UniProtKB/TrEMBL annotation:
Residues 83-107, 122-144 are annotated as: Disordered. This is Glutaredoxin domain-containing protein. It comes from the Eukaryota. It holds the Pfam family GRXCR1-2_C. Residues 211-276 form the Glutaredoxin domain.
Amino acid sequence: MGCAASKSSTATVDYYRPPPSSFAVFDINAIDEPWVKAEQRQQENQEKPTHVPAVILEKLNALEAAPHSWDEVSKALEDFKPAINKPQAPTSPPKPAEQLTENQPPKSLTFHTIEELDAKLSSKPDANELGKTESMEKEKKTTITELKKNSEPRVSAQPVASKLKDNIFIVKDREEREKEGRMANYDKIMTRRDPLSEFPEICPPGGNNTVVIYTTSLRGVRRTFEDCNKVRGLLEVQRVVFDERDVSLHGEFLSELRELLGDEASVPRVFVKGRYLGGAEAVSELNETGKLGKILSLGRLERGVGRLACGGCGGARFVPCVECGGSCKVAAVSTGDKWERCGKCNENGLIHCPTCL
């Protein structure tokens, strides 16, 4: 169906023509097969020129077995050695003095006879000539000295060290060495001397050779309780044995502290071998600077856990009284109806731990 024009247009279309993308876009003749390359290499190797003479090549090709070493090659080419090593031409003898060329100029002589030579040698220079030569030499010396002065670099007017030991670099080096020596001697002196000599001498009872701290276990004031725990922890980290005196457990400890410090009788307070270190702030500052460890190590204090390992009190240093059971009251001996104050315990009904004391 359709018109004739449409049929004629469809008849001219070539349905069997491949698309343009299927055509080869490269030159097949530009491909080099491996066998073609091998033939080209053989031709190039054959066409390489040789620098060996043809006579020697014919001699080597005529041999039955090909030489492998240089000695074998030299033996095979012994016939050619005289031809290669040409004899040296004999050196011509030196020509006599008579056969010199005529172009050479004759030697000029300043005298003709021996008598004239003797006369010249025996003659002395005049006094005027000597004066002229001396003056010329003096002028030359003066000019040379002036040139030297001008050529020398000008030095600024600064004080120059007259001796080597006065050199500024040597002086600075000497001062630094002396300073280092003084610092080393100072460190030695500091290590030898008692580190506790800087602190005031305030010794609590029985604290000549140990560490004594006054603390409290009551939590009435939070900051005071935390400071006591902080000081106790610093000493425990240093692994030193200390005598903790809790003022809340025993009233005599508080009276001791008041006698030692007066108005400053607050806790915590630290004493080391009869020297007063201070409160929580002073001890923490010593610990941050590293002086606390040096003081405890150079003080030769007892190391270990101390009373904290006690199985009776566990480091509290006090236990309930056995007589009154911690009530501070006992029955009177005369009359059983009345009660008396227990004389063995303190105000809190506690006694010193018999195990750790």
